Structure prediction request, 65 residues.
Amino acid sequence: MMMKCTEATQMLSERLDRKLSTKEKLSLGIHTAMCSPCRQFGEQMKELRDITKVYKDLNNVETKE
Prediction:
């Protein structure tokens, strides 16, 4: 059965905080290969995580000076 977009977006979010199982990775990979909005959501989640990390690192540098 095909994963629904609500399940995919939940898993895309969870993937940032925990390691997905092989079955989860496969299901999510198939879904995002066919679903442009979910694929874009996943890319945006990763970008937000990266931006947040850079911002946090910059704040840590500024407070040490």
Remarks:
- The mean pLDDT is 90.
- The radius of gyration is 15 Å.
- Helices lie at 5-14, 22-34, 36-64.
